Amino acid sequence: MSQREYHIVVLGSGGVGKSCLTAQFVQNVWIESYDPTIEDSYRKHIDVDGRHVILEILDTAGTEQFTAMRELYMKTGQGFLLVFSITSMTSLYELAELREQIRRIKEDDNVPLVLVGNKSDLEEDRAVPRPRAFKISQDWGNVPYYETSARRRANVDEVFTDLCRQIMLKDQRAYPPNGPPRGIRGEGRVPRRERRRRHRRPVCTIL
Amino acid sequence: MTDLSSPQEEVDKHASALVAPLNIQKSPKRSRSKERSHTRQSSSRGAPSIRSQSLSQSQPSPPLTPRTSRDSLPEQQPVQPVFHNYLRAFYHFHPSSTVSSSTDESSITVPINQGDVILVHSVHPNGWADGTLLASGARGWLPTNYCEAYDHPTIRNLLNALTHLWDLVRDGENGDLLVFTKQDYVRGMIAGVRYFLERTQCLTRDSPLVASHVGLRRMRKGLLGDLSALVKTAKKLQEILQANKSAVPVFEQLDELVLKSFKLVTRAVRFLDIWAQDSVALTNELGETSINRPPTPPSDSVDLPVQPQTTSNPNEDDSVATNDNTSIVAQPTAVGTYEELDSATSQPPRNLNRLSVAFSIPSESDSLQSPLLPPQPQGQAKRLSVTHRLSYTGKLQGGRKQNLASERLNAAHDAFLGFIGSFIGLHLQSRSSEELTTFTQQAVLACRQLLAVIEEVWERDSRRSDQLEQARDTMYVRLTDLVQATKDMFSTSDAALGEEVVMPDSGKQLVSAATSCVRSAGDCVAKARFVIERTGDFEFESVGLGLSDTIFEQISRPTQEEVEPTEPAKQVEPTLETDKPLPAPPTTARQPPPPLVISESKPLPQVPLPSPVENQRVSLQPTQSAIVESPTAVSFRSSRSSLPPLNQLPTPHLPQPSPSDYSQSPASATQRFFGKAARADSVNASVADTSSTYRYSIIRGDTCSVISQASTRATTPDHSPAKKQSSQTLESSFGSSSELRSMASEDVAAVEEHLLEKTYAHELIYNKEGQISGGSLPALVEQLTTHEATPDAMFVTAFYLTFRLFTTPVELAQCLIERFDYIGDSQSVGVPVRLRVYNVFKGWLESHWLGQSDSSALGIILTFATGKLRAALPAAGKRLAELTAKVTEVRAGALVPRLVSSLGKTGVSNTHFSPTDSNVPNPIIAKSQMNALKASKDGKAQCSILDFDPLELARQFTIIESRLFCSIQPEELLASEWTKKKTNKAINVRAMSTLSTDLANLVADTILHLEDAKKRAIVIKQWVKISVKCLELHNYDSLMAIICSLNSSMVLRLKRTWELVSAKTKARLEELKTITDVGRNYAVLRQRLQNHVAPCIPFVGIYLTDLTFVDVGNGTTRQLPGETGRESVSVINFDKHMKTAKIIGQLQSFQVPYRLAAIPEMQEWMESQIQRVRSSDQSNVQSYYRRSLLLEPREPPASVRASPSDADMASQHLSAESRTNSKDRFEFLNFSFSSTNTVKDR
């Protein structure tokens, strides 16, 4: 099967550490010096449910104030990471607008999304209660909610994998493979089960 | 005093050494290897045995040695302890022929003389080493049992620097000359010399030791002279490289460079000899009871295990013990012999007792890797092939190197990573278990290969590094896990479905297993590297050194038998000796060498045992005079005194031993060797000839210095009665030599000052491009204020720009002042450096001063300016004081406009112009248009963008934008300053983004406020035209904004409107879209901006994102590459700051005003329009979208969301909007958008 390339856009207001999240995900552990100016800086090969995919991540970090650009970024994305900081309630509220914009641009209510509460290592500064964030994620149509710590590299890969899995599922539904091998269907079931499981998982596992 | 043994005695002793028996302890090794073979059977059983077989083929053969008594030959222990980069000969070795040949290959042995220091490139298992004599530059094989390790803390830094230099030169010969365009590499040598003199307490001319000791004083001067010559050569090389001349002079200079360094080190070695001998006596004379003995060597040796023959004089004994220990460790092959000599038999101790202190001062007792191991563990070491020096620079060329363990390690690791990568990548993709099996097998295979290499390294290491063993075992476990995970996957898939389907969960498990495998492999490799560094690199399989495989087989068989537990040890040697084909040297000789006369034997020559000192020891009182009476001094002095004319010769030639030498010499044993000195002449010539095939001939091109080198060497051989002034005479030999005389005394003085510099150069890290990638603050400051060259502009700019990120202004000021202090006030070094310190302060205050953060340092700077600086440099002090005053006045910012930074600005500085320039294009504006603008300003009429020429509109907007862009200060771009909401330091960056957003909104507004689709289409066309003009003007920021807006959902969804837009316009728009594509990390845009000529307004967002990611993606510190066994130190990760500065520099390179004539009226109108859009609360995306919906409601089938209620809402909004809008329009026409600085964040 050919390699699929998926575009993921990371959104969130400034200072929530989304660039850190992306850098952690994209960067190899053994790279000593990270140069973000080259073409491959934001590409990563990963495996999701037995499929090799290439993720191209568009992180708008640093350009949050170029609000007009947002649409341009959003257009390219197939899946979105909406990142806020658990230490800032505003950063969570600001995501609602972004989500609306995404839905509008994509003209789709079921755009693959993941809600990410970053800086989970700063538990003592927590301003967003976990149930609150979880409630919002459910209101958004059972969007998976994760709490991550980019600094400690906690849940970083999981977030991207989950999003990727959603995109793949959507992809499959939109273009059902002709003459699907038996395995595919089986595989299709598994992620969905998993996904449901994941919804609750952050709440209990992040601790 | 001079009661030395007679020549005859000497010979006898020597003979007795020849028959020294040797015990080879085979059993421990055998048992050990057996034991090992039983462990870890599960994972890598097969590998070691195969490896050992292939390994054994890899031995290049050193030359045969002339020998007479074959049966008495002591057998060599197959031990391989620590690899030493430097050896020092303690016996003469003059083979009857330097070239031996069997086939076409030939081998060269270099004659060595007592005291010669040798840079070792590789060591053959039989004990021959491929080395280069520092004294002559000759390279060839030499017997290691004639030498001992030369490694002492005092001189170690210098020796390491030399090794590094050698490696660099070798790379340079392969065409990598970049490093020589800077002189950084010489600094290592300078630092080495400095350290050396510091340790010997001879750093300053006034030190008591130097003052009181004529010899040391002269040696010191000579040393500095050599250093000066070296620095000069480096400069010359730099000039040649910069002049881009042909390769020939470059290579000559490289040769020269190495020669000069060798000379320098040779002299340092002599210096140490003299110092070791005489400093004791001297300190006694000086009545300094604090230092009884030379500080370093003996005190180190005290810690050593004391050898059996401890007798009367404690001093003497210590040194003997030291000597023995060192030789044991240093000379793997000779260990057995010495052991016998020293402990088992009543052999007289070698005559080098005192000499050896100087010669083979043991390495620090604290470093456990160093020699001091009992012979037993060494005996267990597997030693199968040639050991190489691990190159620092590691750029290897030629097939020969491929077999080196380090290379193997790298290759295996790479292969492993590659396989595991594709394993991780592909095992999930291809679901067939068959394929998966294949990949798993490949991955496991690769892993095993890596483990095999590591196994090999471990086995070679006599001390069996625990860490490596641990890492390796961890890796075995990980690999097993991986295999298990794969197995699990198959079983589950088989059991559950009976299909060849891989379950994702087990896949995940597999990936994590593979990942941990990768991690442990990395760990393993790092540890193995460490071991290789310590024990020396070695070759794995055949090839190399130009030997045919058959020879290898022949040679290798016996060697391998050594490992075979069943094989009696005795059989090893005979097999070796009957070996017919002669071993080859690394290169071929140019002229056919004379056929080798001697026997089939290949072992090392036995160690001669000249020990004139034994008698001396007996007869001498254990007084200071005995100490002074060292054989080294004797030998050095003798040649001096016996050849007085040499001192007067302007160009000394290789001295032939005169009969008087012999008569004076008490050691007849040495005579035997020395008798060959005449021959050494020709020997040298032939070696030099051959070594030119290394492109490394020292002799070529500089006869004079070669001869003087040779004379240096020739002074070592013979012995004669010692006198008190011995070392002084020796000194005079150096001091009087022609090259020293020719050296201008000021050079010496200059170098001396240079040496006295305190330096932090060792705290810098360079990357592969030779740029500084890390360093401590003092080291970076030092780099900023070097005296020999103007500091790299890029570095300076990066430093100024970013220093607040890694230090505080106060710290920087203090550090600079400290630099000012420690450099001193000498004319040649101190003054230039102090001026640079002043310049750094000046540059800081003048153009990089940030009132807010830097004012804390102002007090320190002022005190410095009026105090120390004024005292040293009155004018500078005054100026700096003035500057501090000015800075206080102008708190707001820099004194000098910093629009143009030096970074990347060189080529564009001439593009500044005055608006009156003739090249400025005429504005395209008609009188009527002008009038319309004026009318609109007065509120009498309205203008539309359709009224004006798109080019002129683009121009005027570009001018507005350029004004903002050019005022962006570099500080605004640091540490994500622009994203911080509370501070507003990044005024201009924020203004840029606001302007960009405003423009996009203006585009949307102009389109969406029109009810008529036709009109909308016309406006769209106009905007496309404007954006095309923006592109022509290289205004990418405006281009982005316009395209964004045209591309936005609210505009794009207006299907009816777009139907009315011409195909031509659409095509144009498509082109522009590809340029502004954000995909592949803005690949298209980046490509365009690459080497773009200013003026240009790039899309600032790219830089902001890049800067953000450089900041979060790179650590703030990095580790100094730790010296072996030491704790690594964290230093500033300057690479990160360089990257930041580079990005900012790129942005700055575009900060050039446009050559365009402004039309104030039009700009005013545009700004008023922008202001209008901004001020209306509808200027958010949602309201535009609603308007868009209202203009062209959703078609029912297209969307489920276009409910009537939505449309209602939208219409309500619209009515409200249109009211306010029309009102806005009139009100805001009067508003003038005056200054960019007034742009506030919304």
Strand order of the largest sheet of chain A: 2-3-1-4-5-6
How many individual helices of chain B?
52
> Which topology of chain A does CATH recognise?
Rossmann fold
CATH fourth-tier homologous superfamily of chain A: P-loop containing nucleotide triphosphate hydrolases
Look at the structure and name the CATH superfamily of the domain at 947-1113 and 1159-1191 in chain B: Ras guanine-nucleotide exchange factors catalytic domain
Per CATH, which architecture of chain A? Answer: 3-Layer(aba) Sandwich
Q: If you average the pLDDT of chain A, what whole number results? A: 79
Biggest beta-sheet profile of chain A: 6 strands, mixed
- CATH class of the domain at 947-1113 and 1159-1191 in chain B reads Mainly Alpha
Please, how many domains of chain A? 1
Termini separation of chain A comes to: 38 Å
What does this structure look like?
Chain A: Its EC number is 3.6.5.2. Chain A: This is Ras-related protein RSR1. Chain A: It is a lipid-anchor. Chain A: Keywords: Cell membrane, GTP-binding, Hydrolase, Lipoprotein, Membrane, Methylation, Nucleotide-binding, Prenylation. Chain A is of the alpha/beta class and 207 residues long. Helix content of chain A is 43%, strand content 19%. Chain A is built from six helices and six strands. Chain A has helices at 18-26, 69-76, 89-106, 130-139, 156-174, 182-205; strands at residues 4-11, 43-48, 51-59, 79-85, 113-118, 145-147. A six-stranded mixed sheet of chain A has the order 2-3-1-4-5-6, with helices on both faces. The radius of gyration of chain A is 17 Å and the shape is globular. With 1242 residues, chain B is mainly alpha-helical. Chain B is built from 52 helices and 13 strands. In chain B, the strands form four sheets. In chain B, strands 1, 4, 5, 6, 7, 8 and 9 form a seven-stranded antiparallel sheet that branches. In chain B, strands 2-3 form a two-stranded antiparallel ribbon. In chain B, strands 10-11 form a two-stranded antiparallel sheet. In chain B, strand 2 and strand 3 form a beta hairpin. In chain B, helix 6 runs antiparallel to helix 8 (214-243) and helix 33 packs across helix 49 (1134-1149). The N terminus and C terminus of chain B are likely disordered. At the A-B interface, helix 1, strand 2, strand 3, helix 2 and helix 3 of A face helix 15, helix 18, helix 41, helix 43 and helix 47 of B.
